[in-house]
Every structure is written in C-alpha cells, then in structure tokens.
Amino acid sequence: MLEGKSIVVTGAGGGIGRAIALAAAAEGASVVVNDIGAALDGSGGDAGPAHQVVAEIIDAGGQAVANTSSVSDPEGAEAMIAAALDAFGRIDGVVNNAGVLRDGFFHKMSAEQFDQVLKVHLYGSFNVSRAAAPHFKDQGSGAFVHMTSTSGLIGNVAQANYSAAKMALVGMSKSIALDMQRFGVRSNCIAPFAWSRMISSIKVDSDEQRARVSKLQQMTPDKVAAMAAYLLSDAAQEVSGQIFCVRNNEIFLFSQPRPVRSVHRGEGWTVADIAEHAIPALKSDFYPLDVSSDVFSWDPV
C-alpha cells in the first residue's frame, strides 16, 4: 500500500520507530531510517541502530538509507528530507517518532529537563515537518504521522515536560491539517501503547506497577506500525486532523476538546456568583485527576 512512496521515520533505530520503518518498507516504501543513537535521556550517540535497521530492510528486499541527524536541530531535519530526495527522488511521508524522557515531579523539575524533552518531541516534530512541508505543497500530496501519548491526552505523574510536549503535538497536527488541506496534505496523531525502550524506563516498585508493566510487555510495536503505515497510504486520503490510539489489538479514536456544558447569567458574573452558582452547576461534568492507567484499566486483548 506504500509502493513508490518515500518515507522518513525519526527515532527508528529501535522500538516503535523501527517497527514502523520495517512495516513501511514491507508495504513497498523506500525509507529514511533516522536515529541519533542517543541514550534514553538524550545523552551520547551511536550511529549503529539506524544502520542496523537499514540492513534489515535491505536484507528483506526493501530500500532504505540511514540518517543520524538530530531532530532538535533544524539543519539536521533539513538533512533528513534531503536524504530522501537524494536517495529516492521524492518525499511522501514523515513519521515523527523520536523522543527522550527526563521524568521528575514538577516541583523538582529543572528548566533543562523541561527544555530537552520539548526540544526533541515538539520542536523536533516541528523541524522535520517544516522541512518536508514545502515539498508536500509543491507536489500536492503528503502525510504526517505524529506520535502523541495518553500521558498528554489524559495525564500521568512526574511527566509535566513529556505531557506538555505530547499535548502540544496534537495542536500542531491539527493546525498542519487545517493549513495544508488545500494542498492535499494530511496530518494525524497516534497515541501508542507498546513495549519499547522508553516504556521500559517506567519505575517499578510495587506489585501494581509490576502488573501494569507486564500488560505493556504484551503490546508489541508492530501493532502500532500497521496503523502508522495505513495513515501514510493513499487509502487514508480522507483521514486528517484525527487522534488515534493503538492498544494491542484495539484501535481507538480520541475525542477532541469541545464545550460540554455552559451556564449563563444575563447580568454577568461576580466572583461570588461564580462560587455560588456557576461552579456548582458545572461541577458534575468536571474531569477527575485521572492518569492513563485509570482510563485504560482493562487488560489488553
């Protein structure tokens, strides 16, 4: 379903990114496998992972080239798109998957911890998408797939930086979908549940957390990869501006913020009126302070 297409997948040296690169190649795409080879906290760099995935694709009869640029560097993002154009003559899709984690409780989080996560997840996705956008516009087609997270959509503890970046990605994806729809360009998000290096960093210090991790280990990246490959294909040409979630064999469409209830007072509201009337009337529709595991509380099927 991706025959003749050229796709860039960031953070594709392992985990979900690797699975997406392999799935895209299996569907006929030529793939730029991007991975800087950094540790989970963003430190270091090893060119090996990207080249290993390229070798897997080529051994299976596909076409791929490696790129080790950093998504957080605008020039590096331009180099990724240039790699696709140089090797395959075109660019048809971008999967923004690269990420780092610097978890910590908000009252202890440093500016550097916050900044680094946003630089990779949010700025990185902007950089690569922006580098591809003029080419998509000129050819009248293209697809963006951005990896968001239920940590942003629902919430999670000790991840203010990660949650902020992942929620911001949703807004950016919707704006791209609106701005570029007239050029035949699509933009969608996936919130993935899958065992990966990033998920493996979850702190496990209780039976409840061990049980949660055990469930996550059942959710393999290839389940997410199939959805990403579909969104890159022409079969998804009428799908844009949406938020999907893949959890093992389940695919969810997420809601997007819309008004749920209102109160009106013809003479306007004083502070006291809000306290006495507005909030009591709205309170039954308040959202609880859930985390992702509260909402997705059942076993994966």
Structural account:
- The chain has 301 residues and is of the alpha/beta class.
- It folds into two domains: 6-256, 3-Layer(aba) Sandwich (Rossmann fold); 260-296, no CATH class.
- Helix content is 44%, strand content 14%.
- The protein has ten helices and eight strands.
- It has helices spanning 15-26, 48-59, 74-88, 111-139, 150-153, 160-180, 207-217, 221-232, 271-282, 292-295; strands spanning 6-9, 30-34, 63-67, 93-96, 142-147, 185-193, 243-247, 250-253.
- Strands 3-2-1-4-5-6-7-8 form an eight-stranded mixed beta sheet, sandwiched between helices.
- Strand 1, helix 1 and strand 2 form a beta-alpha-beta unit.
- The longest helix has 29 residues, at 111-139.
- The radius of gyration is 20 Å and the shape is globular.
- The mean pLDDT is 93.
Question: In terms of topology, how is this protein built?
Answer:
Elements: E1 6-9, H1 15-26, E2 30-34, H2 48-59, E3 63-67, H3 74-88, E4 93-96, H4 111-139, E5 142-147, H5 150-153, H6 160-180, E6 185-193, H7 207-217, H8 221-232, E7 243-247, E8 250-253, H9 271-282, H10 292-295
Parallel strand pairs: 1-2, 1-4, 2-3, 4-5, 5-6, 6-7
Antiparallel strand pairs: 7-8
Helix pairs in contact: 1-8, 3-4, 4-6
